[in-house]
Design goal:
Belongs to the ABC transporter superfamily. Helices cover 36% and strands 24% of the residues. It is an alpha/beta fold. The chain binds adenosine-5'-diphosphate and magnesium ion (MG).
Length: 255
């Protein structure tokens, strides 16, 4: 039975994201086999694990891009699995950045960042423009406001995509391997933008293959394999003394 969206106010001492026994199948193939964890406000949580282990599916379930098969996901007081889910309310709280930045090619960087607040939230154009310029500054793209995506490097486009997500003023940011498609020299600038965001106190849930970055930035690491969380812990313990053979094998391949 679906639990109705809780109308009580969410308070910051409660988890900002909560997953309880989340299962997801595509047909008969069970991709997530009972995943539970919490993310607290201001925390930076990294999910790592082999390709195909269900990391993207997990992230997409949190943003209701993929419906759950069973279990519960809450973001603040929004019950994501509620059939009456207000997707717009959820998307205002949860920003998401993907590997593919998918900017509108015929819009400038500034226009890309301004689009959703204006066309989805119908906010005042002048205010949105001011915010968009500030966000582009924050991701170090001053001077690129009027550039089109085709005139920007992959790393610059991905930073526009980050600014675009932030323009909705989300409470939580989800990142799914956002540097995986980038040239090595532009990876750093994107990781720096995420780091600064995290240092500003943004709650971040990241899927990443950048182990050094995860070690540096994360408050907590989850290692997934074949749809389950195999092991988790603070980065110090996780990287220096992984206890599960699957974690050890994975780390031996990527470190
Ligand atoms: P990861 O991000 O860890 O690489 P994914 O969540 O993308 O893993 O995928 C986990 C498994 O689910 C893979 O075997 C993938 O082929 C499968 N899968 C993902 N999305 C779909 C879908 N829409 N339909 C069917 N199978 C899917
Ligand atoms: Mg993935």
């Amino acid at each position: 039975m679906a639990v109705a969206t809780d109308t009580r106010p969410w308070t910051p001492d409660q988890p900002i994201i909560q997953l309880i026994d989340v299962h997801k199948s595509f047909g008969t193939f069970e991709v997530l086999k009972g995943v539970s964890f919490d993310v607290k406000k201001g925390e930076v949580v990294c999910i790592i694990g082999p390709s195909g282990s269900g990391k993207s599916t997990l992230i997409r379930c949190i943003n209701a891009l993929v419906p759950l098969t069973s279990g519960t996901i809450r973001v603040e007081n929004i019950e994501v699995s509620d059939p009456q889910l207000d997707k717009l309310a959820l998307r205002r709280k949860v920003g998401m950045v993907f590997q593919q930045y998918n900017l509108f090619p015929h819009k400038t960087a500034l226009q890309n960042v301004m689009m959703a607040p204006i066309h989805v939230l119908h906010q005042d154009k002048r205010e949105v423009e001011e915010r968009a310029r500030a966000l582009l500054k924050k991701v170090r793209l001053v001077g690129k406001e009027h550039s089109y995506p085709g005139e920007l490097s992959g790393g610059q486009q991905q930073r526009v995509a980050i600014a675009r997500s932030l323009a909705m003023l989300p409470d939580v940011m989800l990142f799914d391997e956002v540097t995986a498609a980038l040239d090595p020299e532009t990876v750093k600038e994107v990781l720096l933008a995420i780091r600064e965001l995290a240092e500003d106190g943004m709650t971040c849930l990241l899927v990443t293959h950048e182990m050094n970055f995860a070690r540096d930035i994360a408050d907590h690491i989850y290692f997934t394999d074949r749809g389950v969380i195999v092991e988790h812990g603070p980065p110090d313990t996780f990287f220096s003394a992984p206890s599960d053979p699957r974690t050890r094998e994975f780390l031996s391949q990527v470190l």
